[in-house]
Design goal:
Elements: H1 5-34, H2 60-91, H3 98-151, H4 158-167, H5 169-178, H6 183-341, E1 356-359, E2 362-365
Antiparallel strand pairs: 1-2
Length: about 375
């Protein structure tokens, strides 16, 4: 499947961000652990002759650099979290299937690992600053104790001296005399204490910056881990939904196939019934036609037989009539011959009123 330009860009970011993050974290944290620090550790050096007050043990640029490294680690964790969010958005997209989501979840897993690494780097920078903070607070406490030890035998308080210096010079001079301090010694005491306080202040500021960064980086790491868990839950849900959809589709296909088979069987049975009915109708029609033809033939034969019988009867009657006529004619002829052969006798006169006329051999009665 061809990816869109935005998808390709996301893929490029997904694979390059972890590499960049790893490089930056290693350069920010690892190099600092491998190489020798370049900042000056001036502990217990440049001490004054009259006290054990020491100068600053670390430069502001050093702790600022460490705090900034923690902030950079936090930014990398935030960067990875955003990359994980993009991947999670793709996984939770309604058009993403489980197979595609499983291919994407590795991006969240890698981002989670990178955010944990960045959080660990920020925590390491915080731990380094914790050492400086502990030391600055310890040295500040030691310096305050030394000042108090220097002034307490004379029942003079350092805060009294600084307040008097600002508000009441005669009282200030009296307190210096009471504490057996010269103005130069007091100014050096103030300078050293102020210097250590300034060190403690910028170490604390750097520590708080790194602490916030480490806390935020840890929060990003936890959030990214939760994204991985959420993505895994989403994938599991997608698998279950797809399995359910597959079963439903199979069941639907099965029902449709059964319905189709039933319809086909019914259609087949219907066609067979129609074919059977048609065949039966054709057979019936054929039989009827044959019966009809048979009856017609029988009727024809009967008629022919009747006609023949009639003709034969007529012929027979004709012959009989002819024979009878012939016999009658012969009988008549015979009788006539016999009559002619007999002597003629006068016939009685049945009609006395009639007149008999005999002309030749014939006679008639009128």
């Amino acid at each position: 499947m061809r990816l869109s330009r935005s998808s390709r860009n996301r893929n490029i970011r997904r694979y390059t961000l972890p590499q960049i993050a790893g490089i930056v974290v290693i350069s920010a944290y690892g190099i600092g652990q491998i190489t020798t620090p370049t900042y000056a550790l001036l502990t217990n050096v440049a001490a004054t002759e009259s006290s054990n007050i020491t100068t600053a043990f670390v430069f502001p640029s050093t702790v600022d650099h460490i705090a900034n490294q923690a902030s950079e680690a936090m930014k990398l964790a935030a960067w990875q979290r955003e990359a994980a969010r993009e991947v999670l958005a793709e996984i939770t997209d309604k058009n993403t299937d489980s197979e595609t989501a499983e291919g994407r979840i590795g991006g969240i897993q890698e981002a989670a690992a990178q955010t944990r690494e960045a959080a660990a780097g920020a925590a390491a920078f915080l731990a380094e600053l914790q050492g400086y903070l502990t030391r600055s607070q310890l040295e500040l406490e030691q310096q305050v104790n030394e000042v108090n030890q220097r002034l307490s035998p004379y029942e003079v308080d350092f805060n009294q001296l600084t307040a008097a210096q600002n508000n009441d010079i005669p009282v200030f001079e009296q307190l210096l005399s009471q504490a057996n301090l010269t103005l130069g010694e007091f100014q050096e005491m103030v300078r050293k204490l102020s210097s250590i306080r300034r060190v403690d202040a910028y170490v604390q500021a750097a520590y708080h910056q790194a602490s916030n960064a480490a806390e935020q980086a840890r929060s990003y790491a936890d959030e990214t881990s939760l994204m991985h868990t959420e993505a895994a839950d989403v994938i599991q849900g997608l698998k279950e939904a797809e399995k359910k959809a597959k079963l439903e589709a199979e069941e639907k296909a099965k029902l449709e196939a059964e319905k189709k088979a039933k319809l086909e069987a019914e259609e087949k049975a219907k066609l067979e019934a129609e074919r059977k009915t048609k065949l039966e109708a054709e057979e019936k029609a054929k039989l009827e036609t044959e019966d009809k033809a048979k009856l017609k033939a029988e009727d024809k034969a009967k008629l022919e037989a009747e006609d023949k019988a009639k003709l034969e009867a007529e012929e027979k009657a004709k012959l009989e009539a002819e024979d009878k006529a012939k016999l009658e004619a012969e009988e008549k002829a015979k009788l006539e011959a016999e009559e002619q052969a007999k002597p003629e006798a006068p016939a009685p006169d049945a009609n006395p009123d009639s007149i008999t006329v005999k002309i030749g051999e014939k006679q008639g009665v009128f």
